[in-house]
């Protein structure tokens, strides 16, 4: 199942995120913003992983661990929606 | 567009740390695009801050306490009518609504003072003590609630409800308790303040989400804005909040307003659980103190209520802005003793 960011989540240029469903707001760093933009553009996880690896010059294993950590954090904060493949 | 001149009487001027909705309602009315509003503040106590807010309140009259009954209230309204000829009265306290509902027809016929209040049945069926029945009737989840008039009732309820439980007053106040001792202590505290019965409610774990809404009494929800409290005072009041975009919550809220044929403003208080289930914990029969947020989100509920009170057709609002926040603040006004003297001795200023 591909992971998508909820459609109504607002992401600002500075990495400030507002979830209008819950009223929660968050700040992410440059790395987080990079991933969030890719998710918002509905890119799949494999494409994001590759881009993430290249952008931050990471080996695949580290990139995968970091990306998965970040995605589970997004899920725990109700920022994501799973859609049937 | 030339704004129509009208006079509106508003209660709930207690803009304190547990504020009444009067001042937010007045601010919304003052910002009306259709009405040029003269405000008659109606107070119960001499230190209600709204009495002294001259930029918002044009004239103030004290009202008899609700416990004095409708005869003295009628006399007072007659007096205010002769002096000010208010077109509309917006009562904002739970405790006074019973009297106003009772005399609303008289007010309209004898004094040409319009109100826009729920029917007596609609008002009664959403009472805290009736919450179980209300939930069943309108198909909304509610926490199990019991009404008790004796402290021994708490012991019996331990068999039905697990701790923590919530102990509530008939009109205001709610405390979360974790033991029989705590529950008994709050039972007496609430009885001393609000009288019997005391409501004992199952505690539902989750996030507080509230909706300020307006019904036309004919089964249409005219407006609704949901909010989550961001900062809560020790009295459990929102000191800051943010408007949400929550379709499920809006659907549940509209459904309640429409099916109950609610007439007037109200506040629906929900708990949203981790499973995204919504439990209605209270339906307050008047605008909440944070109703000005609705105005900030693009829905002027106070203005819409005044129009409906005047017999005008109002179309439902179709949108509002999420991500709008309110942040309360306190402000010290400097008032000469002569102002206090006027309201204390003459009952008007």
Topology at a glance:
The complex is a heterodimer of chains A (85) and B (349).
Chain A: E1 3-5, E2 10-11, E3 16-19, E4 24-27, H1 30-40, H2 45-55, H3 60-76, E5 80-82
Antiparallel strand pairs in A: 1-5, 2-3, 3-4
Helix pairs in contact in A: 2-3
Chain B: E1 4-10, H1 22-30, E2 35-43, E3 59-62, H2 70-84, E4 88-90, H3 94-111, H4 120-125, H5 131-138, E5 145-148, H6 152-157, E6 165-168, E7 174-177, H7 180-194, E8 198-202, E9 207-216, E10 221-232, E11 238-243, H8 247-259, E12 263-272, E13 278-284, H9 292-296, H10 301-309, E14 325-327, H11 337-346
Parallel strand pairs in B: 1-2, 1-4, 2-3
Antiparallel strand pairs in B: 5-8, 6-7, 6-8, 9-10, 9-12, 10-11, 11-14, 12-13
Tell me what you see in this structure.
The complex is a heterodimer of chains A (85) and B (349). Chain A is α+β, with helices and mostly antiparallel strands. Helix content of chain A is 46%, strand content 19%. In chain A, the strands form 2 sheets. A 3-stranded antiparallel sheet of chain A has the order 2-3-4, covered by helices on one side. Chain A has a two-stranded antiparallel sheet with strand order 1-5. The model of chain A has no long low-confidence stretch (mean pLDDT 89). Chain B has helices at residues 22-30, 70-84, 94-111, 120-125, 131-138, 152-157, 180-194, 247-259, 292-296, 301-309, 337-346, and strands at 4-10, 35-43, 59-62, 88-90, 145-148, 165-168, 174-177, 198-202, 207-216, 221-232, 238-243, 263-272, 278-284, 325-327. With 349 residues, chain B is α+β, with helices and mostly antiparallel strands. In chain B, strand 12 and strand 13 form a beta hairpin. Chain B folds into 3 domains: 4-116 and 332-346, 3-Layer(aba) Sandwich (Rossmann fold); 144-202, ATP-grasp fold, A domain (Dna Ligase, domain 1, 2-Layer Sandwich), CATH 3.30.1490; 205-327, ATP-grasp fold, B domain (D-amino Acid Aminotransferase, Chain A, domain 1, 2-Layer Sandwich), CATH 3.30.470.20. The interface between A and B is small, with 7 and 12 residues.
